[in-house]
Structure formats: structure tokens, C-alpha cells
Design goal:
This protein is α+β, with helices and mostly antiparallel strands. Strand 8 and strand 9 form a beta hairpin. The chain has one domain. The strands form 3 sheets. Strands 4-1-6-7 form a 4-stranded antiparallel β-sheet. About 10% of the residues have low confidence. The protein starts with about 20 loop residues before the first strand and ends in a 12-residue tail after the last helix.
């Protein structure tokens, strides 16, 4: 073979994957939001037969050791998955624009809505708090907030009722956000 492995019984191969530092990061949403598929192109579902979706995202903090690291969000086509999408749209400051474009009781997973999300989300910014899983294998996104959110205003995980939580949920436009949903 043209390429040989370095793996032996007493040696592993390091592929260079790095996990982000625990804590808050400025994150840029990426291109390629889509239903997840396996190597054969078949849709990937969770244990309860819910379709899985991937929302690509990378840490965008020049000078940080975590800059450029992947913090993509995988979510299921469930009520909690819809909540995650609503939180992402709110965190990038587009909740009001989104509601104007898609009024009423609708699902984020409707084709027309998801097609618009795929176009509008990439290039938008928010903050995400990551935390290493207990087994040390994964870095999980634990919280999401607007760029205006100030984690230092949160005391022991609980925000001042008039302060940080209200600001995190505010629909303030983020960097380069467009209002034409």
C-alpha cells in the first residue's frame, strides 16, 4: 500500500484531534447543515428512530488554543431538537425575523423552514459553553447564548433574573446577521 500505519501492539496513531477547553467560546455556525447519513448515504437515526441532524460550528477566537476546533451540534428530530434550533436562532439574534417569516405553530423540521435555516445560519455567531464528557471522550455543548451574554455575570450557574439570562435570550443581531428570512 502507498500509505502505511504506525499502529503496533505497543504504539498508537495520533490523528491530532483536539477537544476545546471547557468554558465559553465565540462560535461561528458553518455550512453544511443537513440530515445525517452513514457511509452508504442512508439516513442516520437515534435509538428511538428519530432522524439526526448536524449543525456544523467552529470556535472562532483568534489567539485561543481552541480556535478553529469543531463544536458541531447533533440533534434529533424531537421537541428538544426543535428547542435547540430555536435557541440557536435566538442566540444569533434572528428570533424576531424568523417569527415574521414563519408565523404560527410550525415545525423547524418542515422542508421549507429547514431549507431557509441551511442558507441563513452559516456565518452567524453566538457563544457556546462546552464541557468535556465524564469519560473524557467528547466535548459537549452545554449552553448557548448571544454574543452580548457575559458569563462572568452568572454566579454559580444561576443568572440574576433581570441580568444575564434575559440578555442571553434577547434577539439582538449578531455579527454580520441579515434580517431577511
Amino acid at each position: 500500500m502507498k500509505v502505511q500505519s504506525n499502529v503496533t501492539n505497543d504504539k498508537s496513531a495520533d490523528w491530532g484531534y483536539k477537544k476545546p477547553e471547557d468554558g465559553w467560546h465565540v462560535v461561528e455556525m458553518g455550512e453544511g447543515i443537513d440530515a445525517m447519513k452513514d457511509g452508504e448515504g442512508k439516513l442516520v437515526k437515534d435509538k428511538k428512530d428519530n432522524q439526526l441532524w448536524k449543525f456544523p460550528a467552529k470556535i472562532n477566537e483568534e489567539g485561543s488554543e481552541s480556535h478553529g476546533l469543531d463544536v458541531s451540534i447533533v440533534l434529533a428530530e424531537t421537541g428538544f431538537g426543535e428547542k435547540k434550533i430555536a435557541d440557536i436562532i435566538s442566540a444569533i439574534g434572528q428570533a424576531d425575523n424568523f417569527e415574521k417569516a414563519f408565523p404560527g405553530d410550525r415545525s423547524f423540521f418542515e422542508s421549507a423552514i429547514m431549507d431557509k435555516i441551511k442558507i441563513k445560519l452559516p456565518g452567524q455567531f453566538c457563544k457556546m459553553r462546552t464541557e468535556l464528557s465524564k469519560d473524557g471522550k467528547y466535548s459537549n455543548v452545554m449552553e448557548i447564548a448571544s454574543l452580548k451574554f457575559k458569563p462572568e455575570d452568572v454566579v454559580k450557574g444561576k443568572a440574576d433574573k433581570k441580568g444575564a439570562k434575559k440578555e442571553a435570550a434577547a434577539s439582538e443581531p449578531a455579527k454580520e446577521s441579515g434580517g431577511d428570512w
